[in-house]
## 1
Amino acid sequence: MTRILKFGGSSVGSAAALRRSAAIVRGELPAGGLVVVSALKGTTDRILEAVAAAGRGDLPAAQAQLSDLRDHHGAVAAELGLVNNVRPAWGPLLARLDQVVTGMALLGEATARGRDAALAAGETLSAHLAAACFQATFRDVREVMRTDARFGKARVQLPALRAAAEPWREALAGGALWVTQGFLGIAPDGATTTLGRGGSDTSATLLGEALGAAEVQIWTDVDGVLTADPSLVPEARPIPRMSLGEAEALSAFGAKVLHADSLAPGGRAGFRLVVANTLRPGASRTEILPVAPSRAAGEVTSVAYKEGLSLLRYPAAAGLEPPLEAARRLEEAGALRFGLVSSPAGTLLAVRPDTPAAAEALADLEAGGAERESGWAVVALVGEGLRADPVAALRHLAALGHEPVGGLLTGSSTVSIAFLVPESRLGDLIPRLHDRCVLRSPEPA
Ligand code: ADP
Ligand code: ASP
Ligand code: MG
């Protein structure tokens, strides 16, 4: 059965990284399989900068970004000795990127549709380079990844993906070794879409589902899923085995290692899902299991957070319709909703405006009289152990001490408890919660 390997930006970000990834592909896919790659590290940010400059009508700034992008890609290809291999594919791609960005700069307007068209260059350049480096065949993911037309955060249409993927399934079963792009999709009218920042994980798992894969491996730059974000908690430890529910909650509440939408396909299709480190292939890794590993009652496995939230507060007298309407509108525009809590005291909506359209919708709601506070973050404690001992969550909350808490968020998931704090508190709070709730949690039974 087919296996899928996904390499993130840092795993393809330099010649050395690509060589390491090539060795992993040789070792893991001796009988063929599918490799999904992100853009080279930093490329998506660079294209977004170019698009933003173009939107301001600043053509020189936009072209400076594109020139850096070309130089960096050219240098990596040269170091690998693959310039001639990629030139036929890269030439038209770079020319098109230049045209799209120049067109935007001349108009002084960056549309969501144009932005996705520009972003596609990053993933596609990378996939051609990786295909050359891995001695594999490039296939464009837009042959199969059918989505709606919500540019910037497109929703995949599974039945259409499944049907389109049938020829891929056969070829891969026959031993083909293919490389394709993450992050991209195709709208019903043929325009390129993107799945949201970090969406390549979701590309890999959706392809896993559509192709009936036995296993999806996510190759990144850490030793698997850790007990906390290592940039705030250097002593965070790898989690060898975790449940899909834990992984889903952790990613939903902000752990960047797995895209928030990437767990659902594994839940439906049941393939093996592994997170491993390209820099240290032999180091520990995380296996995400449909059946929960045993955890002690009350045990917290990990802490997650996401900053950049806005809170909209509605008085009880406003009723439910205005916040519900706001939630619908924001969601349609691609905002992430972290909570919608209603009580006799009023209603609280916590969102993160992840797309420019969502930021505009939020500004409109504020202009229309909604009371908005920005600068909030969501923090979540996650663990199967909370299912067995929900009261433990309350004990863990005591660890907050005198922290100002903006609201408690409970949801359908019983493997997490989440709350809102001012984002300026994260630097202190996350290490403290990790120490109190994860490191001092009871060991698994
Ligand atoms: P890739 O480019 O491979 O997709 P990402 O940068 O998207 O990699 O995700 C990996 C990063 O996620 C890590 O380098 C780490 O900084 C961050 N991260 C945040 N929370 C966690 C966590 N709980 N476990 C592991 N990594 C995490
Ligand atoms: N290249 C895209 C991003 O930077 C997608 C991904 O890396 O998953 O968001
Ligand atoms: Mg990622």
## 2
Amino acid sequence: MTGDKPLWAGRFSRGPAAAMQAFGDSLPFDQRMWREDIAATAAHARALERAGILTPEERGSIEEALASAAAVFEVGTFVFDDADEDIHSAVERFLTDRLGDTGAKIHAGRSRNDLVATDFRLWLKGTTLRIAAGIHELSAALVAQAETHRDTLAPGYTHLQRAQPILFAHHLLAHAFPLARDFDRMLAAHRAADVSPLGAAAFAGTSLPLDPVATAADLGFAAVFDNAADAVSDRDFALEFLAAGAILGVHLSRLGEEIVLWTTSEFGFAVLDDAYAQGSSIMPQKKNPDIAELVRAKGARMTANLLHLLGVMKGLPLAYDKDLQEDKEPVFDTADTLAGALPVLAGLVATMTFDTDRLAAAVGTASAATDLAEWLVGAGVPFREAHHAVGSLVGRLGAEGRELSGATVDDLAAAHPAFRPEALERLDPRRCVEARRSHGGTAPERIADQLECIRAILQRQKSVLLGSEPKRIVKDVALGRRGARGADS
Ligand code: ARG
């Protein structure tokens, strides 16, 4: 089918209405999958050769034509035809224009239904690993700041009210550990995408002697579909990516919000490097945390992308429906958003400086209250009674215009008869911090444990990204059972 007729023109007596075509075409957004479409098409040509449908010469000329298509795509000079609905029809039309009947043989035994799912999965396989690398980079920046601030005293918050003194590393690591889970979720999304649908054809398989298991191995997939209708209608892998992206987006937005707070004059905990802050067009003194604010907002966008595709999939009848074309834009958008946000946030975190004096000064006065109550517990007082005694002490001092940090031995004695003078030491925030030695706590030894743990996680992430750790254990087993690996070796 050459010229400006659609691939399916045979049955139709009239060409498509311009408005219908403009509304229905996915080419504007799916042309970014040209690499994957070319790879999948080349693999299908090899499959057709193995099936005896293409001669080795025909397969060779198809691969050559695909290589020249790749070369023009690479430099952005591929010329689309008005009838190219999507990247799949564009590549097929290119082959037919180039090779005539040989090109016209390529679509035997395949459908755009299995092809689009193949391209999309290949695209996501690469993208999930690149995003995982971005997560790793941001995590490393947070961990480096945590190393720097392993002795820095800071206020910890609940309800955004000063709650208990901590080492600032404790707080920074509380942003790093969620990212370690995000990394694993991104890898899980990678594994979900790593299943080949090619050879499912429209949804019911084909009468041609093709071997989808061999095609899966040829394309480097870890596994192959089990049911052809499921293969073309399954978008779980895209949902899993979007869910991982949405959760990551929520984590980034929480970090963004804290950066916004820390850099206010009111908090004054952190100063952004000039390279990661923006000014005001009218107020010369301003230094704004625009990037942190944008990241805070992008969490909403990535959440919406997940909801969009969940909504599309809900109630959708099997097998392929054009609704499925709506899968790509939310996925591309989440991927692009993360590809932008992760490196810029990593740079911002790596270069921001923290004002350790401000952080220590903000620890404040009431924050030793829990520790005083725990001192009483150590002396055998029931916790509820201890809580009440210290609460009354804080209230009374406040009424006198005094702070808990200025409490005297007499104040303590008046608050509860079990208090001894040495309890006053607990008013020192560093003593409070040192005392919280429980698992995962903020004491220096526990921070050292946490740093060791996260460093080991970062190391493991590095080996996964460098490919030295198997990502495919489960799927390899599945493929082995079906013999796909053996097909090529
Ligand atoms: N552009 C389509 C998509 O993205 C490709 C599949 C078209 N299949 C079909 N039967 N119309 O989903």
## 3
Amino acid sequence: MSRLIVTLDGPAGVGKTTVARMLAQRLGIAYLDTGAMFRAVAWSLGEGAWELPQDDLLRALSRMDFELEDTGEHSTLLLNGVPVPAAIRSEEVGLWASHMGRIPAVREFLRRSQRLIAADVSLVAEGRDMGSVVFPQAPHKFFLDADPMVRAQRRYAQLQAMGMDADLDRLATQIRIRDDQDRNRAIAPLRPAPDAICIDTGQTDAAGVLAQILRHMGYD
Ligand code: DC
């Protein structure tokens, strides 16, 4: 059987991870959360690492090895053999990840890691540039979007469910800063691939979004 790649891109808090996990489970394939890769790099190098000299950054990246284990909702991203920690999920680390995402060496390193992972397995790949840059040949591409306030509220509920501190106004500001940075960076900016199907997730819950995606893919 040939490999299947489904790409799911969109801004912060749009519900990509939830839908990617459900879709992967439904299709019986793995899902790759590439935001978690940027977050894990940012978290393990620490605050301000985006200002490191290029050589130091390259040396640090050369010591990092990402792998994907298991499938469906059990898909697990490993960094150097260990599952990435829950601590990467804070909004602060999200902002660090967005800063790291502006650095060409980091993007190149992660693009290579993402393609290496996809060389072996079928995937739902979610992120910012999956359909536009990393897997431009993927047969199924989706771009999820929603109003920033809806996304801030969703993120607020998720962080609370994980037992993490959250402040709605602060979250809304951080989401706007990240949106702006992710959409306007020089390389691989957040935007739909020309052949991506756009879905507004502000109007529907995750099950409704999943149903739309499956319908577009020819499953009912
Ligand atoms: O999806 P997320 O919120 O976990 O992503 C965190 C940050 O990582 C995001 O603001 C920008 C960066 N990122 C990226 O530049 N490219 C990707 N494919 C995924 C994430």
